[in-house]
């Protein structure tokens, strides 16, 4: 590999993965690992809210929100993903899709009422800086839903493990508790949270488990945060 450029490598990776991702997106959002996301965030939105879906992929989740009456702008680093999303959204007047990098968000300050960022912050080189940029484009008091992979989620092994051998990677994985602490130290308030359990895990039987132990058997942990800038 030539000189490592995080963002170019990320764009290449997701362009190459776009077709496979689109083949599975319906299952993920409707009955799989992302089925809880839309109900979780939409219950905290108002009709007509401006929502930005950061790392929107092929736009499936963005369109679910748009069909509920929200105005959605989806951003993804992959031109292949954005092209697929735009085709999927044909005829939907309250959606816009743009290619862009979370490290250089092409939006105005205070542009959005809400942010959706599912498993996207972990693919950035400087998560804290990106979190700060997200805060700028989100209105004060606005909400953001972040999805952070659990400790044993397969993408950690597939895309991050090789860093231990000194190899360059493009996944900046973090524990859910690490993300929460970083957010709380940088102007966010935790409003709600919920688990997306791994296959084979029955959360109904884990009622006595601590939050940390529940995170350990989760595929993903969903956080709903309030932007406290200016307060």
From TrEMBL:
Domain of life: Bacteria
GO MF term set: S-adenosylmethionine-dependent methyltransferase activity
Keyword Protein biosynthesis: no
GO biological process: methylation
Domain Methyltransferase type: 53-146
Transmembrane segments annotated in the record for this chain: none
Keyword Methyltransferase: yes
Alphabetical list of CDD domains matching this protein: AdoMet_MTases
Gene3D superfamilies in alphabetical order: Vaccinia Virus protein VP39 (3.40.50.150)
Keywords: Methyltransferase, Transferase
Pfam family, one: Methyltransf_11
UniProt-recorded name of the protein: Class I SAM-dependent methyltransferase
Organism field: Peribacillus saganii
């Amino acid at each position: 590999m030539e000189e490592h450029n995080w963002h170019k490598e990320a764009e290449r990776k997701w362009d190459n993965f776009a077709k496979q991702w689109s083949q599975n997106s319906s299952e993920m959002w409707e009955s799989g690992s992302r089925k809880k996301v839309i109900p979780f965030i939409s219950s905290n939105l108002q009709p007509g809210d401006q929502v930005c879906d950061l790392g929107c992929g092929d736009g499936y989740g963005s369109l679910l929100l748009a069909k509920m009456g929200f105005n959605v702008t989806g951003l993804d680093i992959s031109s292949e993903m954005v092209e697929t999303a735009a085709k999927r959204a044909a005829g939907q007047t309250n959606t816009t899709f743009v290619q862009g990098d979370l490290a250089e968000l092409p939006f105005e300050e205070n542009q959005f009422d809400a942010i959706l960022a599912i498993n996207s912050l972990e693919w950035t080189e400087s998560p804290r800086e990106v979190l700060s940029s997200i805060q700028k484009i989100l209105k004060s008091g606005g909400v953001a839903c972040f999805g952070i992979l659990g400790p044993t989620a397969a993408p950690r092994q597939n895309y991050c493990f090789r860093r231990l051998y000194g190899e360059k990677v493009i996944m900046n994985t973090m524990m859910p508790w690490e993300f929460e602490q970083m957010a709380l130290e940088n102007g966010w308030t935790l409003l709600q949270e919920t688990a997306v359990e791994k296959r084979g895990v029955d959360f109904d039987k884990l009622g006595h488990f601590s939050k940390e132990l529940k995170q350990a058997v989760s595929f993903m942990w969903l956080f709903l945060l309030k932007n406290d800038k200016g307060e």
